Request: fold
Amino acid sequence: MIKLENKKDCCGCAACFQVCPSHCITMEEDGEGFIYPKIDNDKCADCSMCEKVCPIINYSSHKENLKQLSAVVQHKNRKTLRESTSGGAFTAIAEYVIDRGGVVFGVEMNSEFYVQHTYVETKEELYKFRNSKYVQSDVGNTYHEAKKFLDSGRMVCYSGTPCQIEGLINYLGKRDYDKLILVDVVCRAVPSPGVWKRYADYANKKFDDLSKIRFRDKTLGYQYSTMEYTGKNGKISREGIESDPWLRMFFSGMIIRPSCSDCKFRGKDRRSDFTIWDCLNIYHIDKTLDETRGVTRVIIHTEKGKRIFDEINGNFEYRIIPVEAAVNGVKELSVSPGLNPRREEFYHDLYRMSMEALLNKYFPETFSVKFKKFARCTLNRLGLDVGIKHFFRKG
Ligand SMILES: Cc1cc2nc3c(=O)[nH]c(=O)nc-3n(C[C@H](O)[C@H](O)[C@H](O)COP(=O)(O)OP(=O)(O)OC[C@H]3O[C@@H](n4cnc5c(N)ncnc54)[C@H](O)[C@@H]3O)c2cc1C
Reply:
C-alpha cells in the first residue's frame, strides 16, 4: 500500500487510483488544491498494485541508447498555428492518429474552466487540446479508457506531462504497444487546480462573465504571448507574463505542485515517442522560419515516432536540427523551479481572504509591474520587442 510521507513523492498522476482492483483509493484535494491518493485501509487487499504503477517509486532514468532525431516545426495551416501554443506539432500527430481511425487523449478546459484529460475521435474536436493549460489536469480514468481502446485494436495517442506519461506506461504494464503513440511536453511545473478554481471564479467576475480563457494567445506575437480573457459580451482582455496574476503566481513558484520542485522526469531522454516544447529562440537556430507565429521543438525518441514524422512532415515548415541544438540552454529540461518562500503564508491566507485581497497582498500591481507592462506593450506596438530579444538572448 502506498504510504505518502512527503508530498514531493506524489506527482498526482492517479495511476494508483486507476489500477486498484479493490477500488479503495480515492484522489482527494489537499489544502493547496492538489489531489493525492487516500486509501481506505478496511477495503485494501494489500496487493501492492498501487506501488507497482507509481512513477516516482519505480523511477529509473531510462538511459537506453536512444537514437533520437530532433526538429523545429511550424504547421502550415494558419488557423491551427494560431490556436496552438507553439508550432502546432501536437495537432499534426493527433490528425495522423484520427486519420487511421484512432483516438486522441489530451487536456481540455471545459465550460466550467475545469482542466481535465479527455479523448476525441474527430479532427473537428482537436481544438479542445490546442493551447497549453497551465493548471494540473485531472487525469480521471483516462489510463483505463486508453487501455480499453488499445485492447480493442484502436490506435491511441496520449499526450500529457512527463509524469502523466510515465504513470500511463506503468499502468499499462508495457511500453511496446504497436498502436500507442505517446507525446509529452517539456514541463516547467504544474499549478494548483484548487487555486485555479478560485482564480477562475474571480476572473469570471472581474471580466464580466467569461466565455473563454486562453493561456497562450499569440495576437501580440508568439514572442509576447499573453493570457487572454474573453467575456460573453465579446470584450477581450490580455495580460503578459509581467502583469497577469495567474502567470505571476505560476512563475513565482507559489502555486506549483511540490513534486515539480524535485521533478524526476526532466531531461531529454524519455519513454514517449515525441517530446514537444516551445522554441522562442528560433531566430538563433534558423532564421528562415517565421518567429512571430510560433515554432515547436520536437525530439523523436523511437523508430515509430520517426516513421510517423516522415508521414506528417508535409504539414510543416520544418528543419531537422541536432538534438544538442534543440536542448541547448533549455533550463526546464534540467532544473526544477523552487517553491516560493512565502508559500506557507500564502496558503494560510488562501481560504481566509478574497482572491482580490490575496493578489493585492502577494502580487500587487506595483509601479514596477505597471512600468514593465507599459514598456513591453509599447515595444510590441513599435515592433521593437522581437529585435530587443535577439540582442539579449544569446542562443
Ligand atoms: C503545464 C505545462 C507546462 C509547460 N512548461 C513548458 C516550459 O517550461 N517550457 C516549454 O518550452 N514548454 C512548456 N510547455 C509546453 C508548451 O506549452 C507547448 O505544449 C508545446 O510548445 C507544444 O506546443 P504545440 O503548438 O505543438 O501544441 P499545442 O497544440 O499547443 O498542444 C498542447 C498539448 O499539450 C497538452 N496539454 C495542454 N494542457 C496540458 C496540461 N495542463 N497538462 C498536460 N498536457 C497538457 C494538450 O493535450 C496537447 O497535447 C508546457 C506545457 C504545459 C501543459
